[in-house]
Amino acid sequence: MMFKMLKNGVLKKGIITTRYPKVAIEQSLRCKGMPFVDMTKCTKCEDCATACPVNAITVTDTVVVDLGLCIFCGACERVCAQDAMKLSREIELASKNREDLKVKY
Amino acid sequence: MLQGAMDGPSERNEFIDTLTAGLKQMILSSEIERGNCTISVKLENLSDFIAGIVKLGDLDLVSIHASDERQAREVFRLYTIFSMPASKFITIVTDVDPAKPSFKSLTPIVYAANWYEREIKDMFGIIPEGHPDPRSLVLWDSWPEGTYPLRKDFTWNTKVSPVQTPYPFRRVDGEGVFEIPVGPVHAGIIEPGHFRFSVAGEPIINLEIRLGYVHKGIEKLSEQMSYNKGVSLAECISGDNGFAHAIAYCQAIEDIADVDIPARARYIRTILLECERLYNLFRDVAGINLVTGFNPGAQYAYSMQEEMMQLNDFLTGSRFLRGDARVGGVIRDFGKDDLLKIKEKLDKFKEDLDILVDMDTRMPSFLDRTKTTGVITKKIAKDLDFVGPVARASGIDRDVRRDHPYAAYRDVHFDVIIKQDGDVHSRYLVKVGEIYQSMNIVAQLIEKMPDGPISISIDNVPEGKIGFSLVEAPRGELMHWILSGKDKPFRHKIRDPSFNNWLAIEQAAIGFVGNIVPDFPLINKSMNLSYSGNDL
Fold first, then answer.
1. What stretches in chain A show pLDDT beneath 50?
2. Whether complex ipTM tops 0.85
3. Quick one: what percent of chain B has pLDDT higher than 90?
4. For site-directed labelling of B276, which of B17, B65, B306, B307 has its Cα 20 to 30 A away?
5. Does a structural domain hold residue B369?
């Protein structure tokens, strides 16, 4: 019985996880990563800042996205009429300093 | 949301008609909307009225909660909600005078009211007179007395200064009786909760659970957030039930706005709800295998959980299905390829699971450990209103998906898995059975998938209306109840299934046939409750 499970199950399955970070992770096509702002399109209408449920976006002369607060929900992307705000596929966002998480565009 | 719109006038007063003349006299006013009955009763009659109606029939308590309506009506309001098997809800509304904030406790009549009333006392300062256990429940020990966070005069960002007050635990005295305190910090860095065992040797005499260490003020916070933002908040209430919470929240708002969402959105919601159930149940099966000491089986089931979460990631870009629910529908449509991939994966899981279940159910060491361990009798499960797989393993035939169908559950056929023994093995079998049923449901949905839009916009959510929704989350019946305010909830009550089922662990540990301390991890894993969902 045990033999059957090992043969058909565990051994057949093999390893299903990835040895990250030694091996690059296989990202899903719908992966939600760091919000990216295309400043050539942005009209600073503040719609994204209003829609953000965690108030991670501050719009002044620049657009600042605080990745320490961001939950990668994509609300900003959806409200952006200019198509300027997009969730990128960038997911390696670790930082030793909280200030570095504030990304300025 | 619910059946009833098609009900003829003959059925309208069905519930009230069954009441005796004495009970009818107590009713101040009654209203029936879409088959759901709202009855207004005077405070002094509340306990007599409820004693009367619970005698009449098969009523399950869904929630008791209060709301601070002093600005509009100069009263606190108590809402007591029962569900009836025939797809109907009964809400009993009672006004409480703010000058004398107390009511006669319902716990001696409906045992399940116990924790709800203690919660009302903590959050609103409305005292349940004659409650057998008047200790604090949800707020932490050092919360200052006389500060009630859900009252409207308490602003959400108030900082309170802690006052040291020890919590009076129940004590068991006697020769050779010892107490084993466990937690709130646990070895496995799980969530925080304190367990206090009273033992004589190994057998457990009493277990008392103290929760509330991660109380976050979600209900208060929700009153500050617009409906669209609230979906993100609902997702965070209990991490691995996030999608169920989000859908329950959305459905409550759709109930207030009285809109029907497109069929395709309902189907996609249902598929994702079942995906969430699947990865939760794989993990539960793995946990039970792990604690019985059968590591290969555990890793095998964990690998299925991992694959399921990778499938979630593929479908929505989030392993926990975050960010795909929205008020009025769903955010992402699925193509034919996606649906095909789900189907392929599930067929493979079915084969994999067959091997594991075949082995588990024939292995003496697994059966020895799980059978007769942590028994919950049907009577206790009924009296204390347990929900979900825990209740179904004790012979309670209750499943929201069938009893009060939402999303696309009306369009699919499935069995509700019931076992009678109430032990860990029954819970294991119920969970395994539900995995097969989930796969079955998803297969049917993929087959029938309708075309069309995936969401509608809801612009106008009327003020002062009540929206209510029940969802069968992986752990059981989940409720979101919203009294709408101006563009955001005026009062948002959430009842996670774990809130009902934590008492099940206390009961199961004491048990029917005497459990010993090493049985506790197994009992705990067989229920696998959420601390975060309980500590709102």
1. none
2. yes
3. 36
4. B65
5. yes
